[in-house]
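User: As part of a screening pipeline, I want to sanity-check one entry by hand. Below is the sequence and the SMILES for adenosine-5'-triphosphate. Please return the complex as structure tokens so I can compare it with the automated output.
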Amino acid sequence: MARRRQIYEGKAKILYEGPEPGTLIQYFKDDATAFNAQKKGTINGKGVLNNRISEHVFTLLGGIGIPTHFIRRLNMREQLIRQVEIVPIEVVVRNVVAGSLSKRLGIEEGTPLPRTIVEYYYKDDALGDPMVTDEHILAFGWANQEELHDMADMAIRVNDFLSGLFAGIGIRLVDFKLEFGRIWDNDYGRIILADEISPDGCRLWDIQSGEKLDKDRFRRDLGGEVEAYQEVARRLGLFPEGPDSAVLDLESHRKLRGK
Ligand SMILES: Nc1ncnc2c1ncn2[C@@H]1O[C@H](COP(=O)(O)OP(=O)(O)OP(=O)(O)O)[C@@H](O)[C@H]1O
Ligand SMILES: [Mg+2]
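Assistant: Here is the complex for your manual check:
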């Protein structure tokens, strides 16, 4: 394939110029980071799994009317997406107390929330992605009132849909992070779902055992990261492409059961 122009290299993905104006190619790396990139590592095969899982989830969300940047998957590690102007806000949706919420407020991890909580974080690595409120978002013009409403509304719809999807395969959707972006129709900016939805940005716990099937395995040095991501893909009815997939899958079972 001809060399493409690289637009951006992030911690988990690389963006290349797409084949047509307004498109990009999103390449999923195996690199993993945690705690604002203070912890770095690689999870062999993660990129392939996240590409596939995110494709699947975005396709299903598109099917219920959520506008997304996803166009189509190109190969094991790449997908074609619509280029957006990213809103510099991470939208976090929580159903169960975990991670920073547990630490900040001293509430035991695993406590179910009486109602879903939506939080906003300003995307700025140098500042450590600080939590902000809608007041800050509006005051600093990171999004306007209508955009904020659209993002919150879509976040709740995504949560309702994904909670059900995962519950159906024995997984508890504890929390997750979304990113949104603007696409322009003449002068009118419309908000669509962007980035990725994968075990990198979700907390997914096995309903029966409570086992973590997400990036917390990496954050907390639990091991079995790839096996966990594979288990999620397998339960979603996906199967990684490639000759080793059957072998890897058997191994994933062994490792997860053995831990
Ligand atoms: N459709 C899109 N158009 C333009 N940019 C996008 C789109 N979808 C995702 N992005 C951006 O592409 C980058 C994806 O790379 P990656 O997830 O590795 O970044 P990151 O290391 O998390 O960095 P960042 O702090 O910028 O999010 C992110 O900056 C994300 O906001
Ligand atoms: Mg990212």
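Points to compare against the pipeline: The mean pLDDT is 94. The first strand starts at residue 6 and ends at 9.
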